[in-house]
Every structure is written in structure tokens, then in C-alpha cells.
Amino acid sequence: MSSFQIVVLMVVVYIIVIAAVSVIARKAGRTAEGFVRGGRVFPAAVIGLFMASEVVGTSASVGTAQAAFTSGISAAWNLGALGIGFVIFALLFAKRFKRLDEVTISGALERAYGPGVRRVASLTMIASLLLVATAAYVSGGAMIATLLGIEADWAVVIVGVLASVYVVIGGMRSVIYTNLINIAVKIIGIVVVAIAAYAAADGYHGMRVALPPRMLDWDGVGWSQIGAWLVAGGGAMFATQYVVQAMTTVSSEAKARTAGLYTSLILIPYGILAALIGVCAAVVHPEIDSLQALPSMVVDLNPFLQGIAVTGLIASVFGLISALTIGSSTLLLKDFHQPYFNKENDEAKAVRFARLSTLVCGLIPVVVALFASDVLGVTFLAKALRASLAVFVVLMFYRPSFGSRQGALASICLSLPAVVGWYIAGDPFGIDNAYIAILTPLVIMTIAQLSGRGAKARTPIGTARKDIPTATGPSAAPTDHHMSTGAR
């Protein structure tokens, strides 16, 4: 068999396994709650690995390697910031989110700031998730086009269709189970490529000789950029839909915290390995486009190792896209379809909408991806949008009396255009859009606090009461705010 045939065969076997798991898990998706929650509780280790697989997509691996190709090993902070964010999330927020037992981040914010904030926060989160999906398709398409020798546009379309369809089949349970396979394949793949790349670059000595000293400095990108990654990346984890959604699938608050810590143990070393590959690519293939840093090192492998690496990279696309599509469709179901178009809570109608919206959310970014190129920039913008919501997560749990409900609504409405506008303007004065994402709600909420006008936020019910039921199986009572109190 040729090298190409070996690689394609391994990828096809992987896709067949993923499809089989989705079909097996489809029973859990026969109800709307089963589709978005998975229909059962899962161990902390499973959810920890699941969340790690969600975060480590191609925009994280290919994008980090791309940044390292030009900026050096310090690009590892891009994923390291997410790992630090999960540590903070585990210590300060995981138990509180589990106690709320809300399946959407917007539903959690409604507890404190009202239904208006829920709708706007939901739209902001959906926009953020679709931006991340766009970056995943761009990086995934570029990677697959290089490795399999097909047109980049066709690669994007193929990945988009396959990744969306398997989520539609099985819902949240299939996403969890398939992402356990994905994270194992991703870790093996990134380790294989990193070891081979390090050897090809003649190790640390080769990198020192061939590259400027800043490429090997851990602060080479500058502390301003590292700080922005910590703010946008770490902060985004406090207010990311698929993270909050995953918290509802464990059985206790302690396990929710443990799951977050497991995730951080994967992300930090993964970021270092991805950045190392980018630096090695700058030594071995200095003439290539930065987006090809990781794929170029995969091409240099022998056929069997290349098959492992390619499968791992494709798993990165599938793992992230599955999380993004299930998260977006859950927001659309809970925040728009249920209260406005399914007030009678027709189960069959809800399931149909959940499946259709999952497919649509998977395919919309495909169109945008055909015109996008800056993988890390688009991903970072999406994190910044979520970081603005993280401000309200912190205030909701630790200072609900600060500002007002009206101030929160105005803050979220203004944060989206402010952050996107600042990004389009090229981050004027050297101020990263991540800082604008944090400052905009803080300034508006401070004005609301000083003016003394507007209704104060409510203390979230889940932080004060212990009697909120926790789902323990497919037949457990639904606990989402809309499902338990009726559509508004």
C-alpha cells in the first residue's frame, strides 16, 4: 500500500468507529433533555477528558503551532491560559454552577439578571461558538488539504458535514463518548509529531543555532499578549456554554470541581507540545506559510506515524465542532424555541428542532470559513466575547449587589459591537480586544453602581438553596429553568 492509502485507511477506520458510537448512543437523544444532557450522569474523569477534547481543536493545535512558527515557544501560553482558566474554574465556580444545575450559561445569568440578559447573553455565546467553529474549519481544512492532497474548500465542506451529522445522530451522549476517543487519538498524535519534529530540528541545539533567541523565550510574545491570552482564554472558561453544559452531567459538586482539574492537566502540556512543533517547523521548513507549520511536520513522518498524526488532527476538528454545535443548538432550543415556538412543550417538536439546529449550526461556519484565514485571531476574538460574559459570572456568584440588572443588559449589548469593532480596527493603541471585553462591562456596571439607579441583581437561587434536584438518569426531573418553571 502507498503512504496515501495507509493514511486514508486509518482515517476511514476512525470515522467508522465514531459513526458507530454515535449510532449506539442515539437512544439518549429521543428526548430533548436527553439530547442536550446525555440522559445519564458521568464520572468526573470522563467529563474532564471530554472538556479537554472540546477545547483542543485544530484552532488550538494548528493555531498554536502557527503562532509559535513566528513568535516562538511562548505561543504555548495560548493553551496554557486555558489550562489556568480551568484551574480557577474548578476552584471557584464548578461547584456553584453544579448547584445551579442550569444547562445553559444564559439560563444561569437569568437567575441573577433577568430574562433580557438571558436572550442577549445567548446570542453573544452563539456568535462566539460559531466564530470558534469557523476557525476550526479553516485550520482543519488547510491541514486536511495539505495532508490528503485535496482542495482546501472541499476539505472544509467534508469536515463540516461529517462533524455535524454524527452529533445530530446521537446528541450529547455521542459527543461525550466520541470525544473520549478523540482525546486519546489527539494526545497520541501530538506526542508523535512533537517527538519527530524535535528530532528533525536537531533538538534544542538545532533550534538555538537556527532561530533568534526570542523564539525560545517563554515571554517572547510579550507580557501584554500573554496577559490578553489569560484574560480572554482563561476568563472565557468561566462562561463557555459547553463547559457549563458538561457540569450538569456529573453527579455532585465535588465531581464538578474534579472534572475541571482533570481538564487543566491535559491542556497545559498539550499547549507546550503544539508550540514546540511550530518552533521546530521554523527550523526545518522556514520558507512555508505559518498556517502549514504543523501539517508540514506531519508530511515528513513515515506512513504509519503519519496516519496516527492525521487521524489525531481530524479528531481535533471533530471533537471541537461537536461541542460547538451541541452548545449552540442547546442555546437555541432553551432560549428561543421553547419559550416562543414550543410553549406547549411538545417533546417530538423539541427533538426535531434540536437536531435541525445542530445541523445548521455545524454548517453555517463552513460558509464563513471559506473566506477566513487568521485562525488564532478569530479564535481569540471568540474567547474575548465570552470573557465579557465571564465578568457577570464573577459578579453573579461573588458580588450580585454590584451594578444593576439594567446595567448588565446594557453592558452585554454594548460589549459585542465594542469588542468586534476594536478587533476590526486592528486593536488601536496596542490595546488588545480582550481588555476591551473586560473593561466595557466593568465600566458600565460601575456607572450603574455609582448612579444608584436600576434594580439590583438577584442572588442566584442555586447558590443559596441545596434542594435543587440533580439529574441522576434519563428519567430524572428536568432542572433547566425553562423546563422547570414553564416557558416564558
Report on the architecture of this protein.
The chain is mainly alpha-helical and 488 residues long. It has one domain (3-376): Sodium/glucose cotransporter, CATH 1.20.1730.10. The chain has 21 helices and no strands. The chain has helices at residues 3-24, 32-37, 44-55, 58-71, 77-92, 94-100, 105-113, 115-148, 152-200, 203-210, 223-236, 241-247, 253-284, 293-299, 303-341, 347-369, 375-398, 405-424, 433-451, 461-464, 481-485. α4 crosses α13, α11 (223-236) packs across α17 (375-398) and α15 packs across α16. The longest helix has 49 residues, at 152-200.
Oligomer: single chain
User: What is the count of distinct domains?
Assistant: 1
Roughly what fraction of the amino acids lie in strands?
under 5%
Q: Calculate the mean pLDDT score and round it.
A: 82
- Name of the CATH architecture: Up-down Bundle
CATH class: Mainly Alpha
Biased composition (Basic and acidic residues): 479-488
Keywords: Membrane, Transmembrane, Transmembrane helix, Transport
Region (Disordered): 463-488
GO cellular component, one term: plasma membrane
